[in-house]
Structures are given as structure tokens and as C-alpha cells.
């Protein structure tokens, strides 16, 4: 047995079947820890997260790797008191972990759930999550010990399972909720690892779905994400969304794009002919289903003038004014703007 493993097992006996890579998180001043005697581990969602799904993240071998022997280059070193003895714990941070937490928090309510001791994980997370993007930290006493494994019972998290995802390198811990889990490869020291970047695209996609389980079961097979299959599903989903948006645009005379700020866009249902040109002054921007900017109000006014000229028998046509617009997107923009006045 390697010396490091001897050390691990000695500590394992000391702290009752825990090892450094099982140590878990306590909350900082802005995170809430709940008593293990409470039936539900989390309170109801706060209003800021009502429209967001919940993402459960594991810590060790998912975001970091720790050891009692130093690495060639340690990312973090912690001095941890375990039962009155001080241990140095050397930690490597998975490539992209800090950025991942910060970025994915824009799409999810984040929760750390890991089967570990707080006096290791709390100071570690204080370093990893300096901006406090993680809403809650749950740890060993919030898990259920069963057959030598700390099980993570998602039903106790007080969240609808259709809106809940767990990312963990050990699928055994969420074995009762397999359609909620995204397994990630166990990480130790590979500095070229890109798993967090890869899984981010899937998480951003799942954040837009009605029930995450109906999609996860399609591309997670035998505890592994089949990325090729996931990409196909995501592409098909996007294509269907585009078709729906186009159909709605035909009916409502407006193509909506929720990825942009629509606060200043007025209702367009009443704009049907060039006689409504004065209403265009209330329009900030319009977008088409391909995420391309359609004509802004000045361009629409020019479009209207050209239509009027053409109606009066003037030989001038829209195409002659293409140089006034974005040539690359002209056809798409013209089509989308024309739909605005189709009725």
C-alpha cells in the first residue's frame, strides 16, 4: 500500500469512515445549514430563484481533489483540526471550477451536497466561492448512510424533482434518482481536463426545459453522459423552438427573443400596416428567431418609405437600399420585418 493511502486510512479510522475526498461543506455567513432532524433539508425557494431550477454539486473529485501529501504545485493548502490534531490538506482545483460555479449560478440555484466534514470543506469553499454564488451548503449529516455509502436523498431537498439536477462523480450516491443525475468523470490531477466546460452546455440547455428527467434519461446511459446524443437532442430542441417561434410570429406579428431585454418593447399586435408607423417610435429593438437583430426603428421607417414609393409606382425598390443595412443579414431581416406587417 502506498504511504499516502496508509495516511488516508489512518485518518479514516480517526474520523469515522471519512477520508479527505469525502469531507463536506458548512455554510458561510450567507449560506444556510439545516438541522439534520428536520425532514426537509432546504427551505422553500426564495423569490429570486422561483424561475430557476436547482443544481446540486458534489465537491471532492468533482470540483477539487485533496490529499495529505503535497503535489508538485498545490492550488490550496488548508490546516484542518480533526479531533484535536492538526493536519495539512493539499488541494488541487479542477480546471475551470471557479469559473464554472460563477457562470452556472446565472442559470440555477446552486447547492453543495457532499458527504464530508465541515472543518475541511467550509474554508475550502470560502476560497472557491468568494462571490458566494452557492446558496446552500449541505454535508454528511444531511446524507443518509446506507450499506457503507452516504446516499444523497434528493426528495428531502424540498424541490420539485422535475427542476432538480445533481452533478456528481459517484452515481451510487443518487442511485434512487438516476434521471436527475449528470455523472461527471472523477478528477484527480489532469490539468487538461475539460469536463466542467463540456457539462456546462448541457446544464444551460436543461435550465430551459420543463422536466429535466425526460431529457437526462435520453443521453445518460450506464452512468455516462453520451455527449454526441446530448448534442443531437439539444439541436432538435432548438430547431423545434425556432419553428414554434416562427409560427407564433406569423400569428402575432412579432417574433420574440427572450435572450434580449424586452422591457422597452411595446406590444406589436396592433401594428399591421404602414399606417401604424407612429407606433414604431415605441419600439427599441426587434429580433428574429435566429438571434439576428432585425431592423431597428430607423431601418423600419426607411423600409416603410420604400414600400410607399414602390406603391406609388416609383421604380426605387428595397434592394437598392441594401447598402444602408447589414448586407449579411439583409434577407433574414427583411423577411422578419415583412412578417411584422403581414396582416
Descriptive notes:
The chain is of the alpha/beta class and 343 residues long. The chain folds into 2 domains: 3-223, HAD superfamily/HAD-like (Rossmann fold); 242-340, no CATH class. Helix content is 30%, strand content 16%. It contains 8 helices and 12 strands. Strand 5, helix 3 (118-128) and strand 6 form a beta-alpha-beta unit. The longest helix has 26 residues, at 227-252.
Which features characterize this protein?
30% helix, five-stranded parallel β-sheet, disordered C terminus, 2 domains, Rossmann fold, 12 strands, 8 helices, alpha/beta, disordered N terminus, 343 residues, three-stranded antiparallel β-sheet
Task: Describe the protein's topology.
Blueprint: H1 3-14, E1 53-57, E2 64-67, E3 76-82, E4 85-93, H2 97-104, E5 108-113, H3 118-128, E6 134-138, E7 144-146, E8 149-151, E9 164-168, E10 181-183, H4 195-206, H5 212-219, E11 220-221, E12 224-225, H6 227-252, H7 297-311, H8 330-340
Parallel strand pairs: 1-5, 1-9, 5-6, 9-10
Antiparallel strand pairs: 2-4, 3-4, 7-8, 11-12
The mean pLDDT is 74
Distance between the termini: 78 Å
Q: Can you name the CATH architecture of the largest domain?
A: 3-Layer(aba) Sandwich
Round the Cα radius of gyration to an integer and report it: 27 Å
Largest sheet: 5 strands, parallel
Tally of contiguous helical segments: 8
**Inertia-based shape:** globular
**The CATH H-level homologous superfamily of the largest domain:** HAD superfamily/HAD-like
According to CATH, the fold-level topology of the largest domain is Rossmann fold
Strand order of the largest sheet: 6-5-1-9-10
Helix content: 25-40%
